[in-house]
Specification:
Elements lengths: L4 H4 L3 H27 L12 H25 L2
Helix pairs in contact: 2-3
Length: about 80
Amino acid sequence: MQLPDWIRFANDATVYGLWGAALLSLSGFSAWRDYRRKKRHDIDRVGLLPWRDIGALTGFAGLALMAFACVGWIGGT
């Protein structure tokens, strides 16, 4: 499998931006799952994953990577 040229020759800021966007989308997904967990009808059916913690960690990491990417895009590197 060969990667497309726009990702093979991307600078570091673009790679940080892609990873940041992926982590922020995972954070949004975990926020949705945590909302569904809070609104469940059967109180005994607790989920397996700690969605609040996953959302907080991926949200922080995604925002940090997006900040690094914006600094790189503005700086022109």
